[in-house]
Amino acid sequence: MRALWLHFPSDPKSIECADQYMWGPNVMVAPVLEKGATTRRVYLPPCPWFDFWTGERLEGSREIERVVDLETLPLFVRAGSILPMGPVKQYSAEKVDTPLSLSIYPGADASFLIYEDDGKSFNYRRGEWMGIQVKWNDAGRKLDLSLYPGSRMLPPAPRAIDVQLGKAIKSISFRGAPVSVGF
């Protein structure tokens, strides 16, 4: 959790905004602080944003009125982000058979590393870890996945990954070799 001004230091409105925060560099949270509220004024810092719940693209540098309820915390994802989700686990060693989901929010190139180890030992120090490098090329509308140098595939292999761009979803099987997904 970080204040908006840490990510938007030259924006006076982000500096003044004390009731919203960034969750990592790409997700903005606007908690509802008033009992019984049905709407929430949200300031969108200067860049394009996507409403996490509706997928609607919104231009920044302005305030909007967001309908709220007890089930929907206002969340906004910065354009040019890749958001990994799930699968849901109750504890780190739980075995699950649902795929990892990567949601792409277009608008700029993006990249990050998916890191995984056994979650219970220091074996990562001996090279027992997996890194999947994920790169989004916005102009080419293409996502590239590759095994990070120095890491190796961990079981279960292959890995099922669902890649989502808007309403389009493509399922892939990652086995350690480079894979490209075009939209």
General description of the model:
The protein has 183 residues and is mainly β. The chain has 2 domains: 2-78, Immunoglobulin-like, CATH 2.60.40; 81-182, Sandwich (Immunoglobulin-like). 5% of the residues lie in helices and 43% in strands. The chain has helices at residues 4-7, 12-16, and strands at residues 2-3, 21-23, 27-29, 39-44, 49-51, 57-58, 62-67, 75-78, 81-85, 100-105, 110-116, 130-137, 142-147, 159-165, 168-174, 179-182. A 6-stranded antiparallel β-sheet has the order 1-2-3-8-5-6. It is globular. The two termini are 32 Å apart.
Question: How are the secondary structure elements laid out?
Answer:
Elements (H helix, E strand, L loop, with lengths): L1 E2 H4 L4 H5 L4 E3 L3 E3 L9 E6 L4 E3 L5 E2 L3 E6 L7 E4 L2 E5 L14 E6 L4 E7 L13 E8 L4 E6 L11 E7 L2 E7 L4 E4 L1
